[in-house]
Design brief:
alpha/beta, seven-stranded mixed sheet, 11 strands, Methyltransferase domain-containing protein, methyltransferase activity, methyltransferase, transferase, SAM-dependent_MTases_sf
């Protein structure tokens, strides 16, 4: 199994949970599931998972938090075309609209998109994958992708598509859990029992180094990290 982030073949077994073996790259510390679940397995998992989630609760506070984040990244570009990749019910897209951006959101979950269209009719939402958007030739100045990449079995094509749809001089924000954060325990058993490591919901576990490697290999010209006191990577990607 070649590491997607640094292309090394040096790895060791990090842990096993249920039927999933997770391996850690010895070069960049990316942790990933050895055998990716099928699309059918993931569909069954998420059908059950979303039944227990209340994504519309505390909507206004979620919009306020997203507004701060969108404002902090939109200063890096003069362009106004915004896309939230994996937008769910659309609170970050609405935050972008309130900041005067041309606000768009995509998600592969049709139910989430239907809810987003009902909640925020001033924004544009479509049930598309980022790969589909890239094939359509669409481009954006600001791309927002929060807590998405750790879920993906098709990580390679996803990152390649993000690069394709980002305009030159645009900015991409990616957030994901930080396996290398100073506040996070190194005790694997504690990480498992606390559900920090939880396949098949999360298939990849990044450090700053591994996520930087991945995006630089795919063609991003510069990577910058925002400060985070919580175990979350906040990465900005730029394209010349």
């Amino acid at each position: 199994m070649t590491c997607l982030a640094c292309k090394s073949n040096d790895k060791d077994l990090y842990c096993s949970i249920d039927s999933y073996n997770l391996f850690r790259c010895l070069e960049c510390s990316l942790i990933s599931v050895e055998t990716m679940p099928s699309d059918q397995e993931l569909e069954r998992f998420y059908n059950d998972y979303f039944k227990t989630k209340q994504y519309t609760s505390k909507l206004q506070s979620k919009i306020r938090r997203a507004k701060k984040r969108v404002k902090s990244i939109s200063k890096y570009t003069k362009g106004k075309k915004f896309l939230d990749v994996g937008c769910n019910v659309g609170f970050a897209v609405e935050a972008a609209r309130q900041l005067g951006l041309n606000a768009n959101g995509i998600d592969v979950d049709n139910t989430a998109i239907d809810m987003a269209n009902d909640l925020f009719p001033g924004c544009t939402f479509t049930a598309d994958s980022v790969e589909t958007v890239a094939e359509q030739g669409k481009k954006f100045d600001v791309i927002y992708c929060s807590e998405v990449i750790e879920h993906l079995s098709s990580l390679d094509s996803f990152v390649e598509s993000l690069l394709k749809i980002l305009k030159p001089k645009g900015v991409l924000l990616v957030t994901t859990p930080d396996m290398g954060h100073f506040s996070l325990t190194k005790d694997i058993n504690k990480l498992i029992t606390s559900k920090w490591i939880r396949p098949p919901e999360h298939l990849f576990y990044f450090t700053k180094q591994s996520i930087k490697n991945l995006f630089m290999i795919k063609g991003f010209s510069r990577i910058k990290f925002m400060i985070s006191l919580k175990p979350t990577i906040k990465m900005l990607g730029f394209k010349d």
